[in-house]
Amino acid sequence: MNSRQRRGVILLLLSVLCAIGVFVGVLSIVSDVESKVGPEVTAYRLKGNIAPYQSVDPAQFEKVAIPKRWLPSTAVTDLDAVRGKIAVTELHKGSLLQDDMVVARPALKPGQQEIAIMIDASTGVAGKITPGSRVNIYATFEGKRTEDEPVSKVIVADAHVLAVGKLTSLDTAPPEDTGSSARRTGESVPITFALDTKDAQRVAYAESFATHVRLALVAPGGSDTIAPGDRTYTLDGDK
Question: Which of 155, 153, 168, 161 is nearest to 135 (CA)?
Fold first, then answer.
C-alpha cells in the first residue's frame, strides 16, 4: 500500500468517525428534547367566547395536543365533564378549558319548580346575581284606592336562583289593573328561580300586577328570617 492509499484509508476512517459522532450527537439532542417534552395528551380550547353563567356544550371546544408535563392539573381532558354545566365567568376564545371554569347548574329539590321572570337590570342587583345566589324578592303595588299609599312587600324570602339569562330590551305598558300609565323601558334580565308552589304563585302574581319587582341579594351565610312586621312597608310606617 503506497502513501496515497494510506492517506485515503485514513481520511475514510476519519469520515466514518465524524459521521458516528454526528449521529450520536443527534440522538443525544432528540433524547434530551423528549425528556423535556414527554408524551402528549389531549386537551381542549374554546372556539369562541362564552358569556358568564351560560350553558357550555362540547361542540364549543376543539381538541389540541399538549405535552403532558406542561398540562395544568386542572385542565379538562374529557368533554363529558362539562355536560350540563355553566360558565363561572366569561370564557374567551383560545383559552384552555379547565375544570374551575365551569360549575354544575343548580338543581331543583323535591317539591320545587322552575319559574322565570324578567327583572329590571338597573334595579335587580345587575351583574351580582348568579346561579346559586339567594335573594329576597320585593314587589311594590299601587294602593287599591286612589287615596291609598303604595305598598312594598317581601313576597318571597331566600329564593334560590337557578339561572340568569341575557340582557333583553324592555318596553312594555303596565297592567291595566295598576292604574299606572308609565311604560317600562330599559333592559331586563330573565332570572329563573327554584320555588315551591305557593312562592311561585306569589312571584307570578307580582310580575303580573306589581309596578316594580326587585331583588335583594342575601349575603352568604346570612339569615333568611324576616320578621312578619318587616314583610310589608308603607310610608306610614316611618311617620
Answer: 161
The vertex-125 CA angle with 193 and 135, nearest 5°, equals 40
Q: In the CATH scheme, what is the code of domain 40-104?
A: 3.90.1210.10
What the block records as the C-alpha cell of 15 is 469520515
Give mean pLDDT, residues 212-230.
76
Q: With contact defined as beta carbons under 8 Å apart, do 213 and 138 qualify?
A: yes
What is d(CA 112, CA 200) in angstroms, rounded to the nearest whole number?
Answer: 9
- Any idea where the domains of the chain sit in the sequence? 40-104, 113-238
Q: What angle do CA 103, 105, 106 make, to 5 degrees?
A: 115
Q: Which residues is 132 bridged to in the sheet?
A: none
* DSSP-based three-state secondary structure for 129: coil
Please state whether the predicted TM-score (pTM) of the whole model is above 0.70: no
Locate cell 305598558: which residue? 173
Q: What is the predicted pLDDT for the residue at 196?
A: 92
| Neighbour-count burial for 33-71, b at 16+ CB within 10 Å, e otherwise | eeeeeeeeeebbebeeebeebbebeeebbeeeebeeeeb
Instruction: Kindly list the distances between the CA atom of residue 96 and the CA atoms of 15, 25, 36, 87, 119, in Å, as whole numbers in the listed order.
Output: 49, 36, 21, 13, 34
* Cα(86)–Cα(131) distance, integer angstroms: 9
Q: Give the residue-averaged pLDDT of 82-91.
A: 83
Residue 92 to residue 50: CA distance in whole angstroms: 7
